Amino acid sequence: MNDESQRIPVTTDQDVVRVRQLVRTVAVAVKLSLVDQTKIVTAASELARNTLVYGGGGEVEVVRVHNDRRAGIRIVFADQGPGIVDLDLALTDGYTTGGGLGLGLSGARRLVDEFDIDTGPGKGTTITIVKWCR
Amino acid sequence: MNDESQRIPVTTDQDVVRVRQLVRTVAVAVKLSLVDQTKIVTAASELARNTLVYGGGGEVEVVRVHNDRRAGIRIVFADQGPGIVDLDLALTDGYTTGGGLGLGLSGARRLVDEFDIDTGPGKGTTITIVKWCR
Amino acid sequence: MERVPVLKIGDILLVSIQIDMEDQVALQLQEDLAERIVATGVHGVIIDISALDIVDSFVGRTLATIASVSRVLDAETVVVGMRPAVAITLVELGLSLPGIRTALNVEMGIAMIGTRESTDVLDEGEDEIDHAVTTS
Amino acid sequence: MERVPVLKIGDILLVSIQIDMEDQVALQLQEDLAERIVATGVHGVIIDISALDIVDSFVGRTLATIASVSRVLDAETVVVGMRPAVAITLVELGLSLPGIRTALNVEMGIAMIGTRESTDVLDEGEDEIDHAVTTS
Ligand SMILES: Nc1ncnc2c1ncn2[C@@H]1O[C@H](COP(=O)(O)OP(=O)(O)O)[C@@H](O)[C@H]1O
Ligand SMILES: Nc1ncnc2c1ncn2[C@@H]1O[C@H](COP(=O)(O)OP(=O)(O)O)[C@@H](O)[C@H]1O
To answer: From the CB of B107, is ligand 2 less than 6 Å away?
Structure first.
């Protein structure tokens, strides 16, 4: 199912830039359309920033995937931070506890094909997104 | 009670178009008003897309029906997908787990005369809608 | 996959949707339009939906996105020719398309976009009148 | 930390973002611009983002803040060169940047600021009419 996987620790602003660059490289390699490349890199940028800002740092894993029909890219954002208490609220457009625009989670979800989130108070946050080639 | 029934498997975007076309043909045949034709075709489009996107594909059955007073059209959307866990939530305007507008289920229900849904985790989803001639 | 043609007429891109679009065709149109706005530098987009006998939430959302994207790219979108039955159904579905400007037909859509541009010209006109007043 | 250069060209500050900015670099640009607007007294700021292959919510918000700050300091900001794929993604992300003026390229951005300046003349013109009225 998955061929290659690369990991980037996320502890500084500069690491968020590295995540964007790695995702872009892999998105080009799996031949996502230009618009889909732009969407997945943007979603990754939002989620990697959250890993840093709210999760207190963590790790991002970028994986080339394929199922029987299509190739794609899967990205996992994992941190051991405080977790998200009210997930429905956090997924609402405009909701932020930080001072952001509150569009990171909700917007990233709109930009990808699959969006899974595993979080809870004290258990950290792991978000997995997938974008498939059309 | 029901005279004719036609089935369309739904596994691609193109099948959703076929559903719209079949429903339109039958709606004209049973002599629904122009506005009611428009409503039933629109509702069918929403539900067939859900069968494809959330149900992982399935089948749509279109039936001409009549009771003692009126003729009408009944459409059944069936899939073996994950089912809907929280139905009340899914029927709320604006609620989506995908990235849609969250108007498919709630909007389709407003557009038809009868709306039945049979779903649950692991048992797939079957939705039946009916529109009667006025 | 079919593709909806985009025509350039003067300072306007004109799209006349004549087919029952698959979702992918609608998304492709959205991308094509964004690219053509940037490539041509037009300030107006007219989408003629008079041939559509339904607009569901997917197409409705695509029209709204096209309108927002063109706004971000400094062009204005007007959707023209919506059938009455489609308008009724859209509203009942829950989509009132607040961000979308509409007009009855292509001519009125062109006039609407023209109005916006002549407003610019008008401002300059007023300028000159004021100068005349001040200098008199 | 890298820094995005700000050029003064006539009555305009021109910023061409050529790098994938860390968040801190974007914030620094925001500060630099506010300082340069005050120091130079220019009335226009053009930010060329044609080299950016994404604009996320942080950069989008920074652009919106720059536009608001410069408005408060009596300068107008025009963001130019947004790529079509970036425009589509921004809108889908939920950011339609309502407070930001956009144009296709630097030339059109300059023209846009020029247009506004003739509107300014209008304001000043009205000012003078008022004076005339009061003194009469
Ligand atoms: N990795 C995370 N760990 C803990 N909380 C998070 C995480 N990501 C998001 N959140 C919470 O969800 C809220 C909404 O996030 P988001 O939609 O990205 O908006 P913003 O980043 O603008 O605050 C955040 O303000 C924060 O409270
Ligand atoms: N056939 C289905 N199988 C499983 N879940 C479904 C199905 N149809 C709808 N749902 C769920 O209900 C939610 C609401 O659906 P809907 O109102 O049509 O909005 P949208 O299609 O915009 O998501 C979906 O996001 C999905 O989670």
So the answer is: no
* CB of A50 closer than 8 Å to CB of A44: no
Going by DSSP bridges, is the β-strand pair C12-16/A125-132 parallel, antiparallel, or unpaired? unpaired
Q: Give the number of other CB atoms < 10 A from CB of residue D108.
A: 17
CA angle, C89 as apex, C85 and C93 as ends, to 5°? 175
Chain B partners of C24 at a C-beta cutoff of 8 Å?
13
ipTM: 0.85
Q: What is the pTM of this model?
A: 0.85
Q: How far apart are CA A61 and CA A75, in angstroms?
A: 6
Non-local CB neighbours of C2 within 8 Å, separated by 6+ positions: C19, C21, C22, C25
Residue of B nearest to C21 (CA): B17
**C73–D84 CB contact, under 8 Å:** yes
CA atoms of A12 and C131, how far apart (whole Å): 56
Identity at D54, one-letter amino acid code: I
CB contact under 8 Å between A111 and D61, yes or no, is no
Is A70 near chain B, with CB under 8 Å?
no
Q: Is the CB of residue A66 less than 8 Å from the CB of residue A72?
A: yes
The residues, any chain, with a CB within 8 Å of residue B70's CB and separated by 6 or more, are: B132, B133
pLDDT digits (tens, 9 = 90+) for C2-16: 899 999 999 999 999
Q: Is the beta carbon of A82 within 6 A of some atom in ligand 1?
A: yes
Closest CA to A105 of A55, A34, A31: A55
Query: What confidence tens digit (pLDDT) does each residue in A59-102 have?
Result: 999 999 998 789 999 999 999 999 999 998 999 888 998 878 89
Q: Where are the alpha helices (DSSP H) in B30-75?
A: 34-53
- Are A91 and A106 a contacting pair, CB within 8 Å? yes
Looking at chain B, which subunits does it touch, using at least 3 CB pairs closer than 8 Å as the criterion?
A, C
DSSP secondary structure string for all residues of C10-39:
TTEEEEE--S---HHHHHHHHHHHHHHHHH
